[in-house]
Amino acid sequence: MYKRTIIQELTHWKNSIGRKPLVLRGARQVGKTTVVNMFASQFQQYLSLNLEREEDKLIFQKYKSIDELIQAVFFFKKKEINNTSTLIFIDEIQEVPEALGLLRYFYENYPQFYVIVAGSLLESLFNSQVSFPVGRVEYRVLRPFSFEEFLDAMDETAALQQYRSCKIASFAHEKLLKLFHDYTLIGGMPEVVRRYIETKDFLVLQHVYDSLMLSYMEDVEKYAKNQSQVQFIRHAIKASFYEAGSRIKFQGFGQSSYSSREMGEALRTIERAMLIQLVYPTTQTNLPYLPDIKKSPKLQVLDTGMLNYFSGLQQQVFGTKDLNTLYQGKIAEHIVGQELLANKKRLLDPLCFWVREKRESVAEIDYLFPFEGKMIPVEVKSGQTGRLRSLLMYMDLTEESIAIRLYAGEQKIDILQTVSGKTIELHNLPYYLAGNLYEYLKQINNLQ
């Protein structure tokens, strides 16, 4: 079981012209090491170093020049420096911050080697003491399993074929909906998915969730500047799974007495660790869309399965026929956000939603989806199309004529009139297609 899409991304990197050392970003336990180990089968030689291991750490601490370092790495790993294709993986690179600066010399002096590095909270090393090789590295993001990857791991070949077609047959809808509910319930953390495949027992997963949370809490000391901040960050991690899916305020976050500054810094720290994402709104209806960081953000946590477990919602998710009926629709909206994020490869490509906050009219669109220079509005909502007041208001303020509604029903297109009389196409899609929106929009764009 592995993440096929990221393997394809790494293969593209391997074959690219002007390839640079690759920094693989992602929260702990999303499978970075496993993915690289799988990818290593494409090479004749593989050198794996983990700088949390003392013997590997000493190599980087002792040998400061790139020439000596290369010689030492190959010597201690019992490999030959030759013309065979060689992948060098440096894990937990944050343990020796100076190692980051050496990446530029891999690029400049030893371009024949394929170099991947990974680590926790690398942004914390961006300071005057560390020379980060700006312009000499590339980045890829690894996130929890998407629904597509979940289907692949579950060996649901027929369901996967339907999903990828973007044209779901009526006979396949109920099964895909059930599989998506299972995915929403357990989430996309690789170890959780693996255990579920082995046992098909939801109860067995509880200790895996607990272990994940423990590992994140243990990491806090690496992120915090002092003991006070340790407490702030620990509270922020725990409270995030109760506040997820809502717009939040930093002041008193998670029913605490902490100040806006204390919680703001703590939440931004765990955001850099990729445990959460603060999703800011925009008030604009024309490109470029800029997030308004003065407004309250929505809170997106790493994984909906963890959200369900730690907020006590598992039983409700297990028995539902429509995710939109749970938790005021927040679970459905959150898993859609997770799906949209899973398909974003760039770190600087955040989720975005739209708001209009005026006395005479308050409106909100769940997400804005970028597509070929356009921003397509996406609502996650059950019920009649007449309830889409905010969506219709947004469409009156923009030149776009296509909108997306994600819900529990089957695919259909409604032709609607806005208040001003503008005609729009509302594409109603089952919410399990959220991760395939780009392909769907590409298909309908080709038909127009």
Characterization of the model:
With 448 residues, the protein is of the alpha/beta class. It is 42% helix and 17% strand. It has a five-stranded parallel β-sheet with strand order 2-3-4-1-5, with helices on one face. Helix 1 (4-15) packs across helix 2, helix 9 crosses helix 15 and helix 13 packs across helix 14. It is globular and about 70 Å long. The model has no long low-confidence stretch (mean pLDDT 89).
Compact summary:
This protein is α/β, with parallel strands linked by helices and 448 residues long. Helix content is 42%, strand content 17%.
Give the overall form: globular
Let me know the largest β-sheet.
Answer: 5 strands, parallel
Question: What is the spatial order of strands in the main beta sheet?
Answer: 2-3-4-1-5
Rounded to the nearest angstrom, the distance between the terminal CA atoms is: 39 Å
Q: C-alpha Rg, in Å?
A: 23 Å
Number of helices: 19
Low-confidence runs: none
Q: Structural class, please? A: alpha/beta
Instruction: Report the average pLDDT across residues.
Output: 89
Kindly state the number of beta strands: 15
Proportion of residues in helical segments: 40-55%
Oligomer: single chain
Strand content: 15-25%
